[in-house]
Amino acid sequence: MKIVTNNKYVDLHVHSNVSDGTKSPREVVKHASDVGVVVMALTDHDTVAGIDEAAAAANEYGVCLVPGIEISAGYRDRDVHILGYFVDTKSSEFLDILEKAWEKREERNIKIVEKFRKFDIALDIEAIKKYSGSSVITRAHFARWLVENGYCRSNSEVFEKYLGNDGPCYVPRDYMTRETAVKAILKAGGIPVLAHPMLYGLNSKEVDMLVKELKEMGLKGIETFYSSNMGMDEQIVRGFADKYGLIMTGGSDYHGDNKPGLEIGTGRSDTLRVPMKSAEDLFNAAGRELIL
């Protein structure tokens, strides 16, 4: 593992095994500290269950932790992800909304299991739950079980053969609406930010329409600096940020071993650099002071 001592990194998009990462919240924070990340947001999918553990570790390792979440919401025939920063993780109303999203995930998981039975694969749902570290199970957890039990050689093969959006075992999710996601984050005192806008298979005009719609709902930021950006992606997203008056955030989308070659803080092949200004602007938007 590379230890960084001279650089200070910001990573505002990180996952633990409370959703579909492979490291515990504590392990993620320690790893962030080891490689030089000084500001980190834990943004697990549709859950804030790992925030308390991460906060305790952040105090121990000297990392400035932003409590966060990544909520999936429906858009046309796909989903978009809304990051929520500085949400009140104890808000009963917010937790109730997440509970309903969890119930819909559970219904989907049952349908996925039933589809795999047609291929004579009896998925062990209880064993799969052990991977997640909590109640949130994603397709990545199904993939891990299939690989470990010899049905596929890699996660990518699982998605190509079974669980990709066009795969025979894919089940579309019943997502909450975009407005529900944005309003829930705002009501919980958080800052809603559109995650990785160039990953949804939309052209620039369509992304513009999405950002405009979300801005009208209360969107405050857009993820501009991102590990999978290619070509002119960052410049295009900067244009949306300027056009709609949005703060520019960024992150690696680190998942541990579930996304090999993707490092916290620096992305893929050491190409990601999230400016400290992104963290400062996020803190300012939340009415907080960034102290390192």
CATH superfamily of the domain at 9-97 and 189-285: Metal-dependent hydrolases
| Strand composition percent | 15-25%
- What is the tally of beta strands? 9
What are the low-pLDDT stretches, counting only 5+ consecutive residues below 50?
Answer: 1-5
Which structural category fits the helices and strands? alpha/beta
**Which CATH class of the domain at 9-97 and 189-285 applies here?**
Alpha Beta
Q: What kind of oligomer do you see?
A: single chain
Spatial separation of the terminal alpha carbons: 24 Å
Q: Roughly what is the average pLDDT, rounded to an integer?
A: 92
Q: Helical stretch count?
A: 10
| CATH architecture identity of the domain at 9-97 and 189-285 | Alpha-Beta Barrel
CATH topology group of the domain at 9-97 and 189-285: TIM Barrel
Q: Choose one word for the global shape.
A: globular
Main β-sheet, in a few words? 7 strands, mixed
Strand order of the largest sheet: 1-2-3-4-5-6-7
Helix and strand succession?
EHEHEEHHHHHEHEHEEEH
Gyration radius, rounded:
18 Å
Percent helix:
40-55%
Account of the protein in words:
By secondary structure, this protein is of the alpha/beta class. It has a domain at 9-97 and 189-285: TIM Barrel, CATH 3.20.20.140. It has ten helices and nine strands. The chain has helices at 25-34, 51-61, 92-117, 125-132, 139-148, 155-163, 178-187, 204-217, 233-244, 276-285, and strands spanning 9-14, 37-42, 64-75, 78-85, 191-194, 221-226, 247-251, 262-263, 267-268. The protein has a seven-stranded mixed β-sheet with strand order 1-2-3-4-5-6-7. Strands 8-9 form a two-stranded antiparallel sheet. The longest helix has 26 residues, at 92-117. The model is unreliable at 1-5 (pLDDT under 50).
